[in-house]
Design a protein that fits this description.
This is Protein-tyrosine-phosphatase PTP1. One of its GO terms (molecular function) is protein tyrosine phosphatase activity. InterPro entries: Prot-tyrosine_phosphatase-like, Protein-Tyr_Phosphatase, PTP_cat, Tyr_Pase_AS, Tyr_Pase_cat, Tyr_Pase_dom. Pfam families: Y_phosphatase. It comes from Tripterygium wilfordii (Thunder God vine). The protein is of the alpha/beta class and 289 residues long. It has a single domain, classed as Protein tyrosine phosphatase superfamily (Protein-Tyrosine Phosphatase, Chain A), CATH 3.90.190.10. Helices cover 40% and strands 14% of the residues. The protein has eight helices and seven strands. Strand 4 and strand 5 form a beta hairpin. It is globular and about 70 Å long.
Length: 289
């Protein structure tokens, strides 16, 4: 059944719909719709002349799996009245990593996210949940890494170990000056098995910077398992937007996705070639290395 976008004006939304057993009316197409249909018809007819490619696509659908693709929980930055709910979600969904892409307060002194994690002075409690900080590190790319332990107060189970990664230098509605820090987040999460649970990603509103990171991460992971449909980045963003409205807010953020993905692919290939070179190098070269 076809699905059409709702009318833009609230007053034009119909109260109901009368169904008829009569023959269906012809759909009146605009000139743009005729153009879209013609372009699609040409592409699909060309595809139909390539049965091997269609068979390969179907075979990939049969064998592709989401087991090696990290699921995400995209959310807004927690505020004081949602701290306990946030950590409840982390525990229930067994989330191993939280990626925070915002400061607590921006340069204009506006609150962007509540302080739901800092516990340097000892355990911190949110309702029935407590968190402790095991260690804190700051990287050369301005990432702040925290190893947190989270649990219910009266639980007899071991506390959950959470890696909290904060990138405070990513500007709201904008993009970083370079891709290094964003790609370092990727590199630190590569070895986290997707089966452990979804990764929580948030900024302030939880759509612009959050959607941009999720797009970069998801695209790289799918390429690594041979899913070349990942190259259709517009479709990836569209799927994310169908699940959370507004993911990747600006053109600048959308372009940044391409820049970061290209840089990471080049880095991965370069690292792989370097490893192969060392493996194939004569022993005397290895000694110098």
């Amino acid at each position: 059944m076809a699905s059409y976008p709702p009318p833009t004006g609230a007053s034009s939304v119909p109260k109901g719909f009368d169904f008829s057993p009569d023959s269906p009316l012809r759909l009146a197409l605009s000139s743009d719709q005729v153009k879209f249909c013609s372009e699609a018809l040409t592409l699909l007819k060309e595809k139909l002349r390539m049965p091997k490619q269609i068979a390969q696509e179907f075979a990939h659908l049969q064998t592709s799996s989401s087991e090696n693709i990290t699921p995400f929980i995209a959310t807004q930055g927690p505020l004081p009245h949602t701290y306990e709910d946030f950590w409840e979600m982390v525990i229930q969904c067994r989330c191993p990593v939280v990626v925070m892409l915002t400061r607590l307060v921006d340069n204009y002194k506006f609150l962007k996210c509540g302080d739901y994690f800092q516990a340097e002075d000892g355990p911190r409690e949110f309702g029935n949940i407590y968190i402790t900080t095991k260690w804190i590190r700051t990287t050369n790319t301005s990432l702040v890494l925290r190893n947190l332990e989270v649990n219910y107060k009266e639980s007899e189970e071991r506390p959950r170990s959470i890696l909290h990664i904060q990138y405070p230098e990513w500007p709201d509605h904008g993009v970083p000056k370079d891709t290094f820090a964003v790609r370092e987040i990727l590199k630190r999460i590569y070895t986290v098995p997707p089966q452990l649970g979804p990764i929580v990603v948030h900024c302030s509103a939880g759509i612009g910077r959050t959607g941009t990171y999720c797009t970069i991460h998801n695209t790289i992971q799918r390429i690594l398992v041979g899913d070349m449909s990942a190259l259709d980045i517009a479709n990836t963003v569209a799927i994310f937007r169908s699940q959370r409205i507004g993911m990747v807010q600006t053109l600048e953020q959308y372009q940044f996705c391409y820049t970061a993905i290209i840089a990471e692919l080049e880095d991965l290939i370069s690292d792989s070639n370097g490893e192969r070179s060392q493996k194939c190098a004569p022993s005397w070269i290895m000694d110098e290395i």
